[in-house]
Amino acid sequence: MTGKFTEHVHKVGYCLGQSLHSAINWTENNHDEPVDKVTKIISWQQISRHLGFSQKEAVVTFTKTNNVASSKIVSILQSMLTTLISLPQLYKIWWLDLLQNDPLHVLIETLLIVFCIILIILQRRSGWRMEKERKRQKLSEGEVEELLSEWKHNKGKLCERGDSKKHKDTPREGTLLGGGLIIDGVKGSRLLLSSDSKHEFYEKDTIRKPIPQSVVNFATHDYLATSSSRTLKSTALTWLNKYGCGSCGPRGFYGTIDAHLELEDCFASFLGTEGAVLYSDGASAVTSTVAAFAKRGDLLIVDEGVNEALIVGVSLSRANVRYFRHNDVNDLRRVLEKVRQQDVALKRKPTDQRRFLVVEGLYKNWGTLCPLNDIVKLKEEFCYRLILDDSHAIGTMGEFGRGSLERCGLKPMQHCEILTFSIENALGSVGGVTVGSEEVVDHQRLSGAGYCFSASAPPFLSKVCVASLKRLQQQNPEEILHDHMGDFCDVSTKDDFADLHRDISGPHLLNKLHQNVSSLYGTLTNSCHPYALKLCNRLVITSHPQSPILYLRLSDQQATGLSRQEQSAILDRIAHYCLVKEFAIVSTGRHVYRHLQLVPDPSLRLIANVSQTKDDVENLVKVLGEAVEAVLCKNSFCMDIIDEHT
Questions:
Q1: Which among 455, 466, 493, 592 is placed 20 to 30 Å from 210, CA to CA?
Q2: Inter-residue contact 224 to 392 (CB < 8 Å)
Q3: How far apart are the first and last CA of the chain?
Q4: What's the pTM value of the predicted model, to 2 decimals?
Q5: Nearest by Cα to 534 from 546, 518, 552
Q6: pLDDT tens digits, one per residue of 404-416
Q7: 365 by DSSP, 3-state: which?
Q8: 523-553, pLDDT tens digit by residue?
């Protein structure tokens, strides 16, 4: 029936076209001559006979006429109008016939028409509402004048705030010492600071001593001193000359370089897994890994003390989330038991949804170690998978630097299904890695947002990470450099061969780090140390004795009655005092509180690394004791840091 209707429409168009053609030809050939013959035009009767419909014919016949061309054109237009008016009747006949032959087609077409009508109505109603809301929110003249006067009143303050030249020499109370520090480089255990930074601390009307040009590094997460390693610097320079800086594309498109594949193979071999996937950013590696495996409807049981990257990944996954108290295995069991009871009530199997435990091996914001042995037992008892962020334990924990799993005698894939970590800390590179089975790795190449949509890591830095792994695996510096130099070695790099023996590698590297961690923790807690006694009952260490990250917070006695802001201000002053005395430590009270489930107390953070000496540790404890006494006890003997030139 559809084909027949199309044929009829074609015939109608053909007849109308013939009528117009005849009219146009007549007007062109007979401008001034009267018409003395009968002009026969195809009538609607002829059109109806062609269509074959048994409808009441509308007789529209053009008879003999002596009218001018204009009257003939009007008649043609009337014929066309009559044809158009009859189209609904034709459509009705076609539609009824189609309803009998193909009702499903009619139903779908009717629903689409109704849907379009509803969309048009809703769109108009929405536009009407928005227009009404705009009129309702329109400010009155009085409100406009009030806003303008307020802006004019504050305009001067904004200009003063932006005029740095006018106020750059004006001391302000509470200005933070070291704000906007610029690090020019690293030399051994010392950070070289730029002379362009603002290095003065103002307290009331007293100008404090400027910050020195170099300070002992207890602030950065450079645990293995990769930034001062001659071997790694030479490796970076060599491969930078070959690859250039960036890769200019995501991994899945054209950004995968042989250096990336080599690094993935090295990590898979180093950690004993089937594969590894390399991300271009440490934080996005952790975030993307969690979001790649946990989706809406899944269940995540998360330690409330995890870092920001894990919290963002948990949020992006849109899974059901439950938190347990930080490092509290008993509370974790309570949460798991509660989930099991809900399964029984809902008659739900544990395998009906994907379930994960999310923890850190070494907690970045706490310096505590995860009780992985107990976590793994609960994981196996309640049928969960484990996602472990080991960003600060890889390269620092375990006999060979394989992280917190090695420290606890556990293995990836067997006891931990998904192991993810950043290579921006101990290994001194850029990016992050997730290791596991082939299924875990291949799934992320299509589902890991940081892998699919971010440009890949600079290839020369991936080569640096490979060299860092070899440095960690008992390989001599000369062998590392020889493997990575090849034909690209330049003369300046060859001249540095004589100094390579200064770089330590293998077990000596980790042993040195562990000794420095023990020395720092032991000296701070030594009750017989004259300066450590000044810290007693004033600062409390909250970190694990084996952790290279040490946090010191105010004791309960000192913190009683003080707000978080006041505690942060006290710790800032202690950190500033130490900075003036050539020791860089970090006060965390003002920046460790966003995007966290559990916010730690304001603390001082000290980082141990392999380049520090016993004298550095002794002098730090001495300066820290003086700073605590100066700030908390307002001792005047410590005012020797006042600028000697004023």
A1: 592
A2: no
A3: 103
A4: 0.70
A5: 552
A6: 999 999 999 999 9
A7: coil
A8: 999 988 888 888 888 999 999 999 999 999 9
